[in-house]
Specification:
With 563 residues, this protein is an alpha/beta fold. The protein contains 22 helices and 20 strands. The protein is globular and about 70 Å long.
């Protein structure tokens, strides 16, 4: 239960950022309280102001380009927004700590994990080196890291994403802070690891009685951990209250949209609602009936397979030291399945299960060690360079991170024309430009975006550009490798709607790789579940989710946030 006196009070907080020599407001009149022994969820999409306001609490706003224009941040009766950076150092990491979204970029790659946690204790305590090491190992045990003593001497790149996040949590709780700010701490993690991190934070909070600010764009995830929830939109709080009440009976259209935009496990909508649909109150939900789905699948499976994967294996080799013995690791082990034209096959499993390796083998980006892959009845596993180049037009990929797959120096119109030119499509650049503009309009952007550069777009818009570039060649088969995992819920809904619309119009076939099982179920006709390089289970999407056969599949489905 919350005590009556808040440990943290934010009152009428306005935050502005410098743009073109003028300060523009990004957070407006933010007011809320965090009580002792409470988990408070803050929900909102990118740009809503949730992370900026948490950085203000930590005193980490960049002073050269931002300022607190108005209001106060009161921690234990003291306005900490007025403190100098030197004064803040006594609080930061000691009394108020933070777990960031991306542990790999937050941890120092050149320092061993144990030393990074030890550094915090050296700054804020007077413990000896031996006592600090023992304390770090004890913290690693507390956050349930395997082999804590061994992990003390490992570098960040030598451990998994979930383990890195646990190291970050150990670092954050090292000095027993009164407040822990967790900013999107599970966004890039598998659904099972996500569940473990949520349970860990709840256990730590129960044990230490610290207060937690849990920030996320996923309302159903927040509902599993928070006592109360604030919903932020465009720098303001639009709704707040008890988590269960907000989830079951949302009042604001934006909150309703956040809940409805996430695909349901119980039914399949023809089109997912977006934020704009709800704000304009223009959405009409149409459910895909079992009869419609069966009719469509009969049509798909009456043809010959477009792609057939037979006993594919992929081995990687590593050796320790210059003359060390070589060890082999089976990333993909004896995998077989068929994909039919117009079908979407979902490929799910935890990180390291081999799903992206399998996708790369199909794309001929990383050759399989054994087995065969037949595309339109032809074996494509031993093609020469020229034939692989021709195949690229037929089989394309949409990457997870569109920004790193676009050249920052090339306007997006030219980036879309580039693959057309490489494959000799259309007679000249004028025709290619006309086609590129047509495709931009098709993905919801338009001609006015043709000469803009990648950095001028939001994450959702960049993903649309990535899709535009892929469909420019009008391929038959598209591999979507975690192509919506980094997007906000509503932007994700827009992209999923677009992929389904394009599939309908162009007859595309998708291999949809993701760790988000709710999204995979929504998109897929059939689902392959991978575990340790093998296919654990393969079935119709609805059947697999309703009646999973293997324990591994059951574990994955049980870990999906239910809300």
């Amino acid at each position: 239960m919350c005590n009556e006196m808040p440990i943290l009070s934010i009152d009428n907080l306005d935050i502005s950022f410098l743009k073109e020599r003028k300060y523009l407001p990004v957070v407006h009149q933010l007011t809320y309280e965090l009580y002792e022994n409470e988990i408070l969820g803050i929900v909102g999409e990118s740009g809503s102001g949730k992370s900026v306001s948490s950085l203000a609490i930590m005193g980490l706003l960049p002073s050269s380009i931002s300022k607190i224009a108005n209001g106060s941040i009161v921690f234990e009766g003291k306005d900490i927004s007025l403190l100098s950076d030197q004064e803040f150092q006594k609080i930061r990491g000691n009394e108020i700590a933070m777990v960031f979204q991306e542990p790999m970029s937050s941890l120092n790659p050149s320092m061993k994990c144990g030393m990074q946690v030890a550094e915090i204790l050296e700054i804020h305590t007077s413990l000896s080196k031996k006592e600090i090491k023992n304390q770090v190992i004890s913290l690693f045990e507390k956050v349930k890291l395997p082999n804590p003593e061994e992990l003390f001497s490992k570098y960040p790149h030598q451990i998994s994403g979930g383990q890195k996040q646990r190291v970050m949590i150990a670092m954050a709780i090292a000095c027993k802070p009164k407040i822990l700010i967790a900013d999107e701490p599970t966004t890039a993690l598998d659904v099972t690891v996500q569940k473990e991190i949520i349970q860990l934070l709840k256990e730590l909070q129960r044990e230490t009685k610290m207060s937690i600010l849990f920030i996320s764009h996923d309302l159903s995830l927040v509902s599993e951990i928070a006592n109360r929830v604030l919903v932020m939109y465009k720098g303001q709080i639009v709704e707040q209250g008890i988590a269960k009440e907000i989830f079951e009976n949302p009042q604001h259209n934006y909150t309703k949209a956040l809940i409805a935009s996430r695909p349901s496990l119980d039914f399949r909508l023809k089109r997912l609602p977006t934020i704009q649909d709800f704000l304009k109150e223009s959405f009409k939900s149409e459910i895909v009936s079992a009869e419609e789905r069966n009719k469509n699948q009969l049509k798909i499976y009456s043809k010959s397979p477009l792609l057939e994967v037979k006993n594919i294996g992929k081995d990687y080799f590593s050796s320790v030291g210059l003359f060390g013995k070589q060890h082999s690791f089976k990333a993909v082990n004896d995998v077989s399945f068929k994909i039919y034209e117009g079908e979407t096959v979902g490929l799910v499993g935890e990180s390291g299960c081999g799903k992206s390796t399998l996708g790369n083998a199909i794309l001929q980006l990383d050759k399989a060690t054994s087995g065969q892959i037949f595309y339109k009845g032809n074996d494509i596993t031993n093609l020469n360079k020229e034939d692989i180049r021709k195949l690229r037009k037929e089989i394309q990929i949409i990457f997870q991170d569109p920004y790193s797959s676009l050249n920052p120096r090339i306007p997006i119109g030219k980036a879309i024309m580039e693959p057309m030119k490489v494959h000799g499509l259309f007679a000249n650049d004028a025709e290619r430009k006309a086609k590129a503009i047509e495709i931009l309009e098709r993905v919801g952007l338009g001609e006015s975006f043709f000469n803009r550069y990648p950095h001028e777009f939001s994450g959702g818009q960049r993903q649309r550009i990535g899709i535009a570039r892929t469909i420019a060649l009008q391929p038959k088969l598209i591999v979507c490798d975690e192509s919506v995992s980094a997007l906000d819920i509503s932007v994700q809904a827009q992209v999923l709607n677009l992929l389904n619309e394009l599939k309908e119009n162009f007859g595309f076939t998708y291999i949809f790789i993701s760790h988000d099982l709710a999204v995979v179920k929504y998109m897929s006709d059939q689902v392959l579940v991978m575990n340790k390089g093998k296919i654990e289970e393969m079935a119709d999407a609805d059947e697999l989710y309703a009646h999973p056969k293997s324990e591994y599949t059951k574990k994955l489905i049980e870990a999906i946030p239910k809300g």
